[in-house]
Amino acid sequence: MSEQYSLSACIVSYCDYDEVCAAVRSVLANTPGDLALYVVDNASPDGCGTRLAETDFADPRVQVITLPENVGFGRGHNTVLPFLKSRFHFILNPDILLQDDVLHALAGWLEDHPEAAMATPQLYYPDGRIQHLPRRKPTPWALFARQLAPRFPGSVFDKSDRHYTMQDEDLSLPRPIEFCTGSFMAVRTEVLQKVGGFDEDYFMYVEDADLTQKILQEGRVYLVPQYHAVHAWHRAPARDAGKFKMQLGSMIHYFKKWGIKKGSV
């Protein structure tokens, strides 16, 4: 069994009760020992929060918090910041499924690498395909090209996206990255609390890139590919005009805050 550390994790839910329950149960089943698992429901209109609050997960380590309004992804995760007494905290999407004790494995890796403040494992689609989520620091062109790349394979947009998502690099070993996906973040709790968690000016989208930049001021951020998890990855912005507009607003806020200078990895 992996060495035990004091761990906490948070899943912010918005609808889709069955998917959230699957994620919660996978975390509980694969994470022995000291764990505080928070499930924060963002006032799901389908009643997901009420059902979660009434669900007996048969494990005292899980706590459900139902919010009276939808406050967004980052602010939802920030809800638990004052409660955290763990050494390592995990930010997880509700479409994440664990298949082994990856939380303790990542905590142990961070413990062994004091220069690292945050890490993420390699994520896979449910059918086993790899997800190209580690990224370089965003630029306006990279984010624009990313929207068009799936429609124009082999184009300049596709080439730019492959570079942005580091597909032109060897990612078979741990390496620094500049954009850690909010789908699965492992972070030192004291660092997360020090930087104040997510910037709450973002309602949704790009807040994970913003948090990564804040964490990089405190230490390095790594992809640790020897550890894995399954991620359904619902890419709504490419299909939904309203959500794409929301993403565009988040991108504007990000570049006003951090500028457009390219990264170094």
Describe, in plain words, how this protein is organized in 3D.
34% of the residues lie in helices and 20% in strands. The protein has a domain at 7-126 and 171-233: Spore Coat Polysaccharide Biosynthesis Protein SpsA, Chain A (Alpha-Beta Complex), CATH 3.90.550. Strands 1, 2, 3, 4, 5, 6, 7, 8 and 9 form a nine-stranded mixed sheet that branches. It is globular, with a radius of gyration of 18 Å. Helix 5 crosses helix 6 (156-164). The mean pLDDT is 93. Strand 1 (7-13), helix 1 and strand 2 form a beta-alpha-beta unit. With 265 residues, the chain is α/β, with parallel strands linked by helices. The chain is built from nine helices and nine strands.
SSE blueprint and pairings:
Elements (H helix, E strand, L loop, with lengths): L6 E7 L3 H14 L4 E7 L6 H7 L7 E5 L6 H6 L9 E5 L3 E2 L4 H11 L3 E9 L15 H9 L7 H9 L10 E2 L7 E5 H6 L12 H10 L3 E12 L9 H18 L7
Parallel strand pairs: 1-2, 1-4, 2-3, 6-9
Antiparallel strand pairs: 4-8, 5-9, 6-8, 7-9
List keywords for this structure.
single chain; 265 residues; alpha/beta; Spore Coat Polysaccharide Biosynthesis Protein SpsA, Chain A; nine-stranded mixed beta sheet; 9 strands
| Strand segment count | 9
Shape: globular
What is the overall number of helices? 9
How do the helices and strands follow one another from N- to C-terminus?
A: EHEHEHEEHEHHEEHHEH
User: Can you tell me the CATH topology of one domain?
Assistant: Spore Coat Polysaccharide Biosynthesis Protein SpsA, Chain A
* Major beta sheet summary: 9 strands, mixed
Q: Round the mean pLDDT to the nearest integer and report it.
A: 93
CATH class of one domain: Alpha Beta
The end-to-end distance, rounded to whole angstroms, is 34 Å
Are there runs of 5+ residues with pLDDT below 50, and where? none
The CATH architecture name of one domain reads: Alpha-Beta Complex
Share of β-strand residues: 15-25%
